[in-house]
Structure formats: structure tokens, C-alpha cells
What does this fold into?
Amino acid sequence: MKAISAEPKGTNSGGGRVVQAFIVADNTPATLPTSGASVDGLYDTDTFAPFSVLYVVADVDAKVYITNESGVFIPQ
It folds into this structure.
């Protein structure tokens, strides 16, 4: 997974950034990211702001995931 863009929106409780990110993945991740640790271009301590987007370019049913108000990716 690669971050195409990441706009800082604040800081999280651990002192890391909260970013609104646009992420692209070749395949659906086995586990959806909860931090930037598994995303190239983000810091391990980054977390996701609402409406961050993960787009899967593979031929799969769920191609778009958007974070809810808590920063959790939800398939659309």
C-alpha cells in the first residue's frame, strides 16, 4: 500500500499525526490499516482522519474503503 497524499489534520493521543490520506493498494489488504505502519509514505505513528480513502486497484468487489468518524476503514 502506498500513500498518494496525506494531509495532517492534528495529533493523536500518542503524539503522532492524524492524517487525511488517499492510499492505493494493488490487492485487498489481509488486515485494513489502523496506522501508517503498513503504508509506504506514512509514519508508523500516523492514524487516519475521517474520510481517508483506501482504493484497491485489483478486480475485487470492494474497491473503496473510507474511514468513519473514528478513523476505521469501512468498505463502500
Summary: The longest strand covers residues 2-11. The mean pLDDT is 97. The chain is about 0% helix and 40% strand. The radius of gyration is 11 Å.
